[in-house]
Amino acid sequence: MYYFKLIFKNVFRAKLRTALTITGLIVAVVAFGLLQTVVDAWYAGANASSGTRLVTRNAISLVFPMPIYYRERMRSVEGVKSVSYSQWFGGIYKEPQNFFPQFAIDHTNYLEMFPEFITKPEELLAFKRDRQGAMVGRKLAEQFGWKIGDTVPIRGTIFQGNWQFTVRGIFDGKDETTITRQFFMHWDYINEDIKRRFPRRGDQIGAFNIEIKDASRAADISKEIDGLFRNSLAETLTETEKAFQLGFVAQSEAIVVAIRTVSFVVIFIIMAVVANTMAMTARERIAEYATLKVLGFSPGYVAALVFGEAMVLALTGAALGILLTFPMAQGFASSPAGAAFAVFAVTPSTVQLQVICAVIVGVVAALVPSWRSARVNIVDGLRHVG
Amino acid sequence: MSAQTNDSNILVEIKNLVKTYTRGDQAVPVLHDISLNILRGDFISLMGPSGSGKSTLLNLIAGIDKPTAGILRIDGEDISKLSEGDLADWRASNIGFIFQFYNLMPVLTAYENVELPLLLTNLNKAERRERIHLTLGMVGLMDRMDHYPNELSGGQQQRVAIARAVVTDPTILVCDEPTGDLDKQSATDVLNMLKELNSKLGKTIIMVTHDAHAAEAAKRMVHLEKGELIGEVI
After folding, report:
1. Distance from CA of B195 to the nearest CA of A (A)
2. In chain B, which residues have their Cβ closer than 8 Å to the Cβ of A299?
3. pLDDT tens digits for A257-311?
4. A11 to chain B: nearest residue by CA?
5. CA–CA separation, A116 vs A95, rounded Å?
6. Contact criterion met (CB below 8 Å) for A33 and A322
7. Full-prediction pTM beyond 0.90?
8. For B88, which of A2, A291, A296 is closest by C-beta distance?
9. Do B64 and A2 touch (CB under 8 A)?
10. Average pLDDT in the A171-185 region?
């Protein structure tokens, strides 16, 4: 009890220095948390993917389509529960900076394949009945202020022309990791128009979404599906939904690595700052540590005082930093820059990492000053003027 | 010159004590062949110019430094043979320290400073409180127990240091220039307090001082010069 009292009194002895060090720690912990959240946001799609869903695309590249009739052959593979499809639409809503993912889907079963999208039955039915209908995610609807019945004009880039869609439903996410910044429309509606204007581009699809009965058979089923189309004009590549998503992330892996590196550099810098603070503190108190040893306190007790002080500093900074990370992340997510991320939420693993980093900062910063304080020579220490 | 006695009441027995420090490659002799006995209940002042070795001798007796050669027995125990850990325990139960600059913990109140050495005993909180009140009352600082050192005068701080030194009821009080940082009145008060501790409570006191007036408070004055005992006045 007395030990903790002494530590707390010592921590707040040089108030300005302590305040500045804790402020530095808070900034570092918040920066680390936000950068880790950016990395998490990058992997949000992959992390939210299901083990029982596969994605089949053209083996050459995602930009090359496959004939829609592949679906019937895929259905025949043992272990396949259902087959749906989706096509990247890539249109512009008013301005290019209003980017959000748009997919033309098989309206009959695509949304049922994704139970993480929570839809109202009547809205889902309305969406299915209207060929120009659109189902939009909650965050997207909130971002642009869309309501049921609103008309959304989108200028096509891949599928050129001015398209009009009517919001028939707004879906929610199962939890905050579910991406609800998406816009779904009927593939039939797009295909019908494209077939009329560009007949050779009709009845082609970008990706098949396949639900399987047993996740452990994903590799076998993928192999079997790809075998069906070997030596055809459009050979396929089937992989789990997670592998498919990670393929996208891999394209920007250098950025992710850079962000991760910067986040740990921030921690390393604050570690040096706290270590410097502790070294200064311990040097100023040599006479006090010598006095404690004269009175009979062990070197271990003296070391524990310095160690405890560093830990209180580090953990106070971490606690305040973690508390601040949540509103900061929320603020960023609702800003125009944050809108680029489908999901931007601080995860428990980020908080865990923040705590671990703070503990490491405290331990490393205290090591040398603790050791030196424990070894202080009493006679020299008593002569020392701090 | 050495003061020796065959009295069975000897508390500190020093024979042919040598202390040499090593500075780089050089050996610097500080104490040469010191022999001195201090009796139980004695009040001795060690005097001498700077560099005479009086503080070194005090540190050796107090168990915060170790001799290079010779015999140093306190109450029959050769403390030069104790390990660092045992020496720390020995100091905690046998020695009370009073320093020139008080060496109080600035973040602790007078009460908490006096409590510090009691934390190394088995006393419970109530027993500690009783002892602290007793000693703070003895030095006349009951009304200042919640004050921090920077809220006390030099004389009051030294009285807190005296309370801290005696609160564990040690056998020996070692005082290193206890009046060196005090005004005349405060110095007189502190010396009177030490005399009382010696005469009424029977504490053995060993005091290093430059001040002849302070040294007169002691029963014996021992002079050191260049690491040797050169005279003793009783």
Report:
1. 23
2. 84
3. 899 899 999 999 999 999 999 999 999 999 999 999 999 999 999 999 999 999 9
4. B107
5. 30
6. yes
7. no
8. A296
9. no
10. 87
